Amino acid sequence: MAMNVERKYDPLRARGYEQLNLLGLGGFGEVWHCRRCDGAEVAIKIVKYSEKEEERVQREAQILERLSHPGVVKFHSVFTEETQESQNLERRDRRCITAPAGFASCLAGKTEGSEGSTTWCDNSACLNSYCCSDSESEHDDGIAFLASEASANGSASSVCDTLEHSAVRRTDAQTQAPRARILSGSTTRQTASHATGAAQTKKLLYLEMEFCGGGSLLSWLQRRNARSTSEGLDGHHVEYAEAIRIFSECASALAYIHEQACVHRDVKPGNIFLDADSSVHIGDFGLALDFGSADVMPLEKRGTTVGTPAYASPEQLAGESCSFPADIYSLGVVLAELLCPVVTQMERCLMIENLRAGSGLPKQVREAFPEASKLVTQMTDPDPKLRPDARDVMLLCQALRDEVRA
Length: 406
Fold this sequence. Notes:
Transferase(Phosphotransferase), domain 1; globular; 15 helices; two-stranded antiparallel sheet; alpha+beta
């Protein structure tokens, strides 16, 4: 007599997706490389959220849907479902919400289908030296995308892990901590409500996007730095021309994003992706603000720090309201990393801290690339009013290309 074995429900498999690889992990989310039933390869971000977080989670899909630029990760579709679970995405309720054709149709009927969010993996064994095993707070929106290679110069407890990977929201009390804490790599555990395992009704958002097969800029920097370590820190071996090309495409994409009245608020190598042709695509708009919408107010309280500490502007770290100049500051730090190959994570930390303190880039970089170094200083000016806008940065990129070819 045949036994009826209940097969665990998988919403992705039910919709014809084959999960190929885990691309990224975050405090409240995962990103998977999937293959659709038509053979197309896509990236799917899965976000877990509660009812009070619904507006924040919906915002990312709304922003992505209206952005259309070669330098921005393409939005395909979105669907949601409800779940009864405590800590991970595996304990899902059998009741699933039908996937809509697009975001607008998903929001049209508020019955059983609104938008959702993501969860982090608790298994620190799957994290390399560029991924944090702890989330900064219960409102961590960032996803640490897994590098294609293990780091050659650090461990999972590296001092700069928190600097690089945690897109955080922190309250006034937390932002009063000394600056040394930001550099310490210390993190705060999730609140007790997450640890108790008490079942809660939450929703899951499944956001289908373009898959970028070239990995993240973070992975590119890892590989570049490893080659620089073994071959010597000179302009021939650290691929400065390619670095400036990547930066130029980032500036072009960011100029478009700002022209669409959006502020990303978490520009960093881990959120910049490369396709098979090494073209740039900015992604992960989980912290973005849309000043083109009817409601332009941030969804967090004033005094809350938003962003990744190493790349966040001074106004972000102070918990003040921020606009387009905050993204310029973050991109300036990215340019600094592109220009300054490092051997160790501590060296990287010191470079970023010196930049934040107003000391500029290392002397050898300033002498080799004075125009690029000057632009980094301008973009990371502590006064947001003195930073250039994204369109000005984009126009200056030709001078940078000429400089690295000289």
